[in-house]
Amino acid sequence: MIQIFGIPSQALFGQLLLGLINGSFYALLSLGLAVIFGMLNIINFTHGAQYMMGAFCAFLLLKYLGINYWAALVIVPIVIGILGILIERLFLRHVRKLDHLYGLILTFGLALIIEGLFRNYYGSSGQPYSPPPELTGGHNLGFMFLPNYRAWVIGFSLAVCLATWFAIERTRLGSYLRAATENPALVRAFGINVPRMVTLTYGFGVGLAALAGVMAAPIYNVSPQMGSDLIIVVFAVVVIGGMGSIMGAIVTGFMLGIVEGLTKVFFPEASNTVIFAIMIVVLLARPAGLFGRAA
Amino acid sequence: MRLAGIVTFAVAALLGAAAQAEDLNVKLGVLNDMSSLYADIGGQGSVIAAKMAVQDFNPAAHGMKVDVISADHLNKPDVGSNIARQWFDVEHVDAILDVPTSSVALAVNEVVREKNKVFLVSGAASSDLTGPKCSPNTIHWTYDTWMLANGTGKALVKSGGDTWFFITADYAFGHALERDTTAVVKANGGQVLGSVLAPLNTQDFSSFLLQAQASHAKIIGLANAGGDTDNAIKQGAEFGIAAGGQHFAGLLVFITDVEALGLKIAQGLVLTETWYWDMTDANRAWTKRWQVEKPGKFPAMTVAGVYSATLHYLKAVAALKSATDGKAVVAKMKEMPTDDPLFGKGYIRPDGRKIHPAYLFEVKSPEESKYPGDFYKLRATIPADEAFRPMKDDNCPLVTN
């Protein structure tokens, strides 16, 4: 068997694939963050809590209404997206024109409150959620056993990421959005309802987090702190990719998933810090991030 | 006028002195994880248990007044030892209870020794607390890593699981559990093929599971706890660990983990505990009382341990009529045999180890479970004198000197 750095190549391919799967969560979450930051200039610290709410919402739908995974995949992002819209209307609207810090502190506080509420009702150990029966089992790829559910995660999140990128960078609606970020007054002069567009964009970003939450429910422990465990990493991903860069968020998400996966083979103890080491290096070399434009 | 003032002052002083003579004030501090992965095995549940113990002890009847306060150590040793210092210096706390997360417990252990107070450990697992780090101020109550290894580890090796691969939480507790289990596996003729250290609070275990799969070990030993164990087992089901002929050994699985996993995934898991809510009528009655504050939840053994330890501590303080000298209180606790509704009769060894039986359980299948919380069937009872590490293997300076 061929060995690379003392690791059988087969095992290495397996780890690469796994890294890619984790990367798809990073990509989905950082994409939502990048959209929100790019369009609203808000550093959305509630993102982790919204991801957690997505997973919990899927669990609650199944437990109390018998609604399965596939329906949850559609319903949950809408429900949590609407909650996001409420947050935007009630709170974020008022801090948007202020310094970033205000939005950051506001959303961070909201995240703590939401997490605390869930912990109060459901405890910290988590809730059970099984993968849909259609996607249980898996295939032996020769170099690893790939569960069907993971294959679905990678395919679906890639599709969602690319569709979002396309909608923002290549469609007319997306061009309105980007124009509204640059110069809201001018865009409004053309008869476009900018505040509503901003609200909907936030709702969409939050919906992406919730979608990631539903996708995570069958494989990760559905617990109130699942979001806060992940969100710091996702922020690092956004910073490395370049704040507000859509493509940057997607590519960096997948890339860092792979880097983390490889670290788990060569030096597992560092697997939860490697991303931050990369962040430091990137910030020193390219302060605007890999894909960001210097301000 | 001036006379009246003096009289009032004198009366007040007398009343104050009377009140002091009447009441021996004791303050207990429950220090644990209130907000993160170990909050359900202790957290507010332990605070409730401590308060129940105070209630059952009936301090007024012993001329005592007992207060219970609590704090969140965030699973950080520096935060934990800072709170402990503040509690002793400012709040005049007499004993610290619970303290899950071994790294924090080991830090608090030193502060308590320095301040000559009392430390009653229920949540933490590292057997070092009664080994090299043993202290005349500390009692390790509910369970420890040696007992877990000896229970689950031995049972699995004896039933044919003679090759092991460890996925270990990368901190004091995980290291201790892996070390203790490795010793048990080897002593019973098994062998350890490899291990991997996973950071605490890892979301995705698939890389580690893949390494475990590649090792072809019959048993994948999970030397971790809480959300880490849940994630590993949940993802193990997905990666077909059982289908490939390998089995998990959840070396530390609490009832709250079984609930989080669901019986469908957790069924068949073998685990060791020292207390299960559905074992005796006394346990069930106690659980019902506890559930008034925590509806729908089931207390873990660590919570029951806080109750039992608090009760015994208060008995010792009542016998001594003082809580100020921590060493004296602990010595008294060791001298008095323990007896409470939850753990029955037992005793505390000179090294600080509380001794009681341990139970080897198997998680029921969804069909076997008849009502909420009906999770375990008893596979074996490990008698008290075999459940914990013999003192001669402790390396505890208290015993050897």
Question: Keywords, please?
Answer:
heterodimer, A: 295 residues, mainly alpha, 2 domains, two-stranded antiparallel ribbon, two-stranded antiparallel sheet, 11 helices, 4 strands, 72% helix, globular, B: 401 residues, alpha/beta, Rossmann fold, 5-stranded parallel beta sheet, 4-stranded parallel beta sheet, 15 helices, 20% strand
Brief write-up:
The complex is a heterodimer of chains A (about 300) and B (about 400). By secondary structure, chain A is mainly alpha-helical.
Provide the fold topology.
The complex is a heterodimer of chains A (295) and B (401).
Chain A: E1 3-4, E2 7-8, H1 9-40, H2 47-65, H3 69-95, H4 100-122, E3 138-140, E4 145-147, H5 148-170, H6 172-182, H7 184-189, H8 194-216, H9 226-241, H10 246-266, H11 274-285
Helix pairs in contact in A: 1-5, 1-8, 1-9, 1-10, 2-3, 2-4, 2-8, 2-9, 3-8, 5-6, 9-10, 9-11
Chain B: H1 2-22, E1 24-32, H2 43-57, E2 64-72, H3 77-91, E3 95-98, H4 102-115, E4 118-121, E5 138-140, H5 145-158, E6 163-169, H6 172-187, E7 191-198, H7 206-215, E8 219-223, H8 226-238, E9 247-250, H9 255-261, H10 263-266, E10 270-273, H11 281-291, H12 301-320, H13 326-335, E11 338-340, E12 344-348, E13 354-355, E14 358-363, E15 376-382, H14 384-387, H15 397-400
Parallel strand pairs in B: 1-2, 1-3, 3-4, 4-5, 6-7, 6-8, 8-9
Antiparallel strand pairs in B: 10-14, 11-12, 12-13, 14-15
3D structure, described in words:
The complex is a heterodimer of chains A (295) and B (401). Chain A has helices at residues 9-40, 47-65, 69-95, 100-122, 148-170, 172-182, 184-189, 194-216, 226-241, 246-266, 274-285, and strands spanning 3-4, 7-8, 138-140, 145-147. Chain A folds into two domains: 38-221, no CATH class; 225-295, no CATH class. In chain A, β1 (3-4) and β2 form a beta hairpin. The N and C termini of chain A lie far apart (50 Å). In chain A, α1 (9-40) runs parallel beside α5 (148-170). Chain A contains eleven helices and four strands, in the order ββααααββααααααα. Chain B has two domains: 24-143 and 279-351, Response regulator (Rossmann fold, 3-Layer(aba) Sandwich); 147-273 and 358-382, Response regulator (Rossmann fold, 3-Layer(aba) Sandwich), CATH 3.40.50. Chain B has 15 helices and 15 strands. Chain B has helices at 2-22, 43-57, 77-91, 102-115, 145-158, 172-187, 206-215, 226-238, 255-261, 263-266, 281-291, 301-320, 326-335, 384-387, 397-400, and strands spanning 24-32, 64-72, 95-98, 118-121, 138-140, 163-169, 191-198, 219-223, 247-250, 270-273, 338-340, 344-348, 354-355, 358-363, 376-382. In chain B, β3, α4 (102-115) and β4 form a beta-alpha-beta unit. The longest helix of chain B is centred in the N-terminal third of the chain and has 21 residues, at 2-22. The chains are: A mainly alpha (295), B alpha/beta (401). The A-B interface holds A 8, 11, 14-15, 18-19, 21-22, 116, 119, 123-128, 130-131, 137-138, 144-145, 147, 149-150, 218-221, 223, 225-226, 229-230, 261, 264-265, 268-269, 271-273 and B 35-41, 43, 170, 196-199, 201-204, 206-208, 210-211, 213-214, 226-227, 230-231, 234-235, 238-240, 244, 254, 256-257, 259-262, 264-265, 297.
